[in-house]
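WP5 quarterly update. Target: Type I-E CRISPR-associated protein Cas7/Cse4/CasC. Source organism: Butyricicoccus pullicaecorum. Length: 184 aa.
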Amino acid sequence: MLYEIHMLKNYPPVNLNRDESGAPKSCMFAGTTRGRVSSQCLKRSWRTSSVLSEAIGAEHLGIRTRKLPQLVAERLTELGVSQEYIDAVFQKISGFGNKEGKENKDGSYTAQIIFYAPEDIQAVADAVHDMIKDCASVKEVKALKAKDLQDAVKGADVRPITLDMALFGRMVTSNAFRDVEAAM
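Structure tokens (predicted):
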């Protein structure tokens, strides 16, 4: 059985939900044009709420970011990898987030924002660390492809998801991470 709930709620005069051009989204309701707030807009406010992070603990929540290369570089530094090797692999990590594994020219960010669990970031760092250990020189590390790194992470153990991922879901195009169906 399918239930649809349509309701009116008062909000202060703000632009809660915008379309591609930045204009407020609207709809006809009860014969009047009204502002529309999508479920995505509401879920984002719940996900970023201080109430949720205080109740659950920020360490148990996921991270939505394009800065995977920086996060992995920090973990590699903690693992004792030399800066020379980190610099050689840094741009390759930017290939996460797309199936082809195309690296960004800048290399400091991924092609899309991805919702990561802390275990996902650690899995990428561990896979990169293992691949660096298998290489005899920096030149060999530079010869690695981003697709090879993604395949190494994909083959890693199944990683747990965070509570906010379970509630709100995750859709990715990278083969290294799995989609998570939303509970809400």
